[in-house]
Amino acid sequence: MEIKSILKILLILILSPLLCHSSEIELPSKYVERAAQGHTNNWAVLVDTSRFWFNYRHVANVLSIYRSVKRLGIPDSQIILMVAEDMACNPRNPRPATVFNNMNQQINVYGNDVEVDYRGYEVTVENFVRLLTGRNHNGTARSKKLLTDSGSNVLIYLTGHGGEGFLKFQDSEEITSQELADAIEQMWQKQRYHELFFMIDTCQAASMYEKFYSPNILAVASSLVGEDSLSHHVDPAIGVYIIDRYTYYALEFLEKVEPNSKKTMAEFLSVCPKRVCISTVGVRRDLYPKDPSSVPITNFFGSVRPIEMTNQVVNISMSSIPDEKESEIVEKIAKGVTYSDLKIKFPEQFPSNIFK
Amino acid sequence: MNKKLLYSLLISGAIRYFISISKYSRSIENHVEISTPLNSFKRLKEGVFLYDNGIDPYDGDIFHESPFILIAANFLLKNFGEFISLILIIIDLLSAVFIYYGSKSISKRNYERQQLEVSTYAKGTEEIQFSKSDIDNIPFICAFAYLFNPYSILNCVGQTTTVWSNFLLSVVIYSMSKNMKFICLLALAFETQKNFYPFVLIVPIALAFSENDKSKNLKRIITVVTFASIFGLLNYIAFTYMGNWKFLDSTFGFIIHCRDLTPNIGLFWYFFTEMFDHFRELFLYTFQLNTTILYLFPLTFTFKESPEFLLTILLSLVTIFSSYPCIGAIAFYMSLIPLWKRCSPFMSHNFIVIATFIVTSILGPTVYHLWMYANSANANFYFGVTLVFCTSQIFLLTDLCFAYLKRKFCLTNGVTFDKTMKLSLE
Amino acid sequence: MGILSNPSIGAHEKKTKYITIINKYSNLFCFLLYLIGFGWFCALSFPQFQSNTYFSENALLPGLVLSELKMDSVNLAKTYLNELEHERTSHKSNIPYPWMQAKMKQIGLKTYIHNFTLNYPFGGGKRFEGKNIYGILRGPRIGATESIVISVPYRPPNTAHTSITASVPLILAFADFARRQKYWSKDIIFLVTDQEQLGMQAFLEAYYGEDENNILDSGTLYGKAGSIVAAINMEIQDFDVDFNSLKIEGLNGQLPNLDLHNLVVKLSHKNGIPIGYKTKMSEHPRDDVIANFFSLLSMMWTQSSGVPNGNHGLFHKYGIEALTIEAVKRETSVKNNNVHHKIMALLKIIEGISRSLNNLLERFHQSFFFYVIVSADRFISIGDYMPSVGLMSASLLIKSFLLWLIANNKNEDDEQENENKEEEDKIVIVRKSKTTIDYIKIGTIILCSHIVGVGALLITTNKFIHDYLFSMNIPTQTGIFYSIIFIIAVSLLMPKFLRLNVIDAQYLNIVLLIELGTMLLSVSMLNFSLGFFLCVFITPFAILINIQENSRRNLLKFLIRSLIHLIIHPITVLYGIICLLSYIAFNEMNFNYIVDKSFTATIDAITFAVVDSLIYGNWLFDLTFLILLPCWIMLWILNFSKPIEKKNKDKSE
Fold first, then answer.
1. Where is the active site (chain A) (predicted)?
2. Between β-strands A41-48 and A79-83, what pairing exists: parallel, antiparallel or unpaired?
3. If pLDDT is split at 50, 70 and 90, which confidence band does A339 have?
4. Which residues in chain C have their CB less than 8 angstroms from residue B402's CB?
């Protein structure tokens, strides 16, 4: 049955030129519109900077955001996930090989489709800055590079322990707000982003975006300078704080967002009021030329997916089946295609059954 | 030999022996104030063992003694392993004897020098002039100060190789005072081979040897060159013996770069534990310059008429600021201070310095115990105490320098002044 | 350089002016310092100077975790208790090893027996043997690099101590529960020790491979876990717990990290068992200054002796944080008392502590190691109490400095008078001093008095002497008593042979004050309470006892001074304290009886101190003989100092 659904997509691809009156290859109007805005692809850099079992919540934070952006369509190849500690395999974890972000333990955010790009001691200030500025060492794996261009909208999410003007990495070093601002300026100079959404959940988080001076940045922080960000709740079964307040409410919001959602960034920025957050959420919008209320949230959390059109049948799964045979089947099926089948559906992220 | 000295030797020898057979000797040996990476007996044994088994002891990071110490220790441990503590006690006592005779001839020379100038002295300065009886008194006090100094006793019980250094230094002083040039330079070369820093002593020695000469500068240059060639030769002998040059880096390199940051009573370790790596070199060389040649020239010009005093001051400076100081070396320079007994009326901080020495010597190990064994204090406590200890040593030193100058001034200008007069040596 | 050493030559002029003032007021000033120090300490009993306890260590996450204990663990504990009670009828004087070993193995622990031997230093080589039993629960998903100890002293039925039979069943029930959990990141050692502290000492010595002590032959351990991070010692008197009492004072007055203390307090509260420091939970109100003061003193009193008040105290020597939880049984029976509930609470406390310790990533290092507990939730930290001791011991050092100034300038003053006429407007920098100080004699006195101290230590602890005494059929206690009498006699006779004149005595006094001041400072660093009590006691005497300077000798005054000296002799003081304590404890007894009893008690106390020093390394005894006694001897010699010979002085003038 799964093969069927794949073939259906193929069919759509095949049929789409027909639907477009196949006289000339034209880009979908929406895509053109977006391209005119200069935003052609989406990237996310999600970083947990802290180690140790009692910082379980930071790992849960970053994995939850990871899950959300992935659900909203940014592919794994465009998410750089940095996790400083392997909570799932910590011997203290009473639920081995899992990480939960909620005391009901509904979702294991450390499921089998998580790709951690930088892990453990690889999460260093140096690696983080190299990643942002693209000055990787020779031979760095492709999955560890931020291959953005002037059309990329980049989401940067940081969580860990911070203080005024710094964020601690790994209990051994820290990045200062100035260093971060300079790294981002370098990104801008190198045309490595189009727009940047900076999101940080630490104590005194607002101090981290204060030094930014590059254009097109929208920044949000879980707390103002002088405030602590607080954790949300404990899972008594695991015995640790399981998620931070700001991230918790941000996720609550993101859970309701669909890939074709009309929600705007302004709505997202007003998430977690002081009443529930206890800390004050800080927003910096002076570097961002647009009005956040007119920017759809999917500009940063979703993904633009460039579609390449082809008239040929491409065998993407089973190399053992010769192409002609496949095309026969396809044609057979194509004959029975009805219009209702062409409705756009969002399939599972990893239809792993295909590969069986 | 005079009777008092003989008794002192016997008694202090007995004290050293009884402590070294008591149950405390092992913990004394392990104290950081006594054993540093440079002089610890444990490391020496390890080095000898490695050497014995055909492994180059300089390959690892354990052994940092000079190759000659290695050879000597190898011989001693193999043949007289049982009596090593006795041998060390005898060497320590011998050092005291050399200090005695060395300071005797230094006092004599001081007295003779004074006799030449005595006509120019103001009246009423008898109290601060060297008297004839000083020639007998001062050497005894010096030897006594070495024999009964708790620092030197602990050092000897701890069986450190500083006992050897002290012996070599005492030979240097003895031969310098007796004008035995070759022995003096040889001993100094050996000592430099072992501890590196004492090379600065070549300056007072060159001054001393050129004192009654006509072509002073030539003589001085000859002394320095001779020293350099003896030193070079020693290193070459060590090279032929060891078969490679690794020992240079493992001894001098180790001292200069301060690679081992084990806490000690010096000023290096705490500073370089905290140091950022890219500043390390800069500060390292600044520190080493401070230890060796920063004060060398100013002090030389100030005290050039008394090489012995210059030697005392330089030796104490080098000891205080070296990268791995230990109390054995401190005991040695302390035993030279009584030579300048006649300066003591001008020393105003005696009491504070001595009281600080006592308090810090007790508090230091206490805090170290709390830090290392009881797990309850921390490095800052210990560093605080050692810092005070070093400061009090520096107090002692500057006090001595000023006292010397004041004495010199008073000798010619008399000791009574009008109340209205304001005098300053600044 | 001006700060280091004033280079100007005419620095003398103002000095003499101050000397007279100093001379006049030095005692007053030093005594004032002492009083301020003491007042500072008293002020600490005001709640404003105390802090509330708090957690510094993030990793502990105390009490966040939901207990997974089920009722079957409680039932298991009860079953184990019944079985153990049955075993105890047939094992009157030792641990029922087969039963315990079987149970530990059944639970799934790696079980070992540890043999140790005590070669009793007195009484001609008697030997005592003991056996500890312990089981190791390995952390299931990590290499065995660190461990926690949960220990229990086992007391056989014929013991003189309070029975704590319920402890073993409790930790076995917990072991059974813990065995089935998968989240242990550290090994847990369940240790049942024999012979009270001796067994614990032997275990620790064997664990850390320390074999220098030939009195206690600590044997070999056949199974080891990682390095021990923390230890909890349980003394459960009964499952029907009234309240938990915490014992923290360790060997030589070391204390566990305050975080561990707080952890236990918090978990005990959370599980509904009141907990108190030495008292029942009916804690005095915060503002009750008097009660605060006495509870301070009560902790410091226990701490000052340096003898641990539970098995936990021996861990501290190895840098392991440890404390004892003593569950005190309910005296009055209550209706409808739910023992099951109490067992559950106790198990939950152990579970909570173990899980928090399990979370630790580093050894305890954050919170305080030096503190004084006022009540379970309030403490005074080192920064607050140290000034009081600092001021008191500094007063000694300052006094010695002032004495030095006075002594040095007095000579000059005397001489100046003579020369004044001719040199009114002159400053003389250096003069020939006419009085010479007999340094050799002072040195001899210092040396001799310390040699007496060392000798005393050797005599009382030397094995050969004890063997000789044994062969002479003299009991150990009497032997030690006679040797101490001998020492006292020697010390009393010292002034007969070594007498100083007043000027030399002044210098000896200076040395003495420096020694005392230094000793007090370092003792109070190591064991604050001991240092404090010594300061309070010694400082006033050391400050106020001045050397008699007038040549007219007042016999009555001299006798009174001698009497005071005799009263502050360390042994007299010990006797006095014991008298006082027994008077408080048995105040209904006849006074003569108490005086008599205290005498034997003193001898016993000395013997115990010797044993403590030899086996456990308690240094109170060594301190007394190496420093306190020599200092006393010096004071005693000072008391007998000769007035300066008038004739001699006349001659020189």
1. 161, 203
2. parallel
3. very low
4. 1, 5, 7
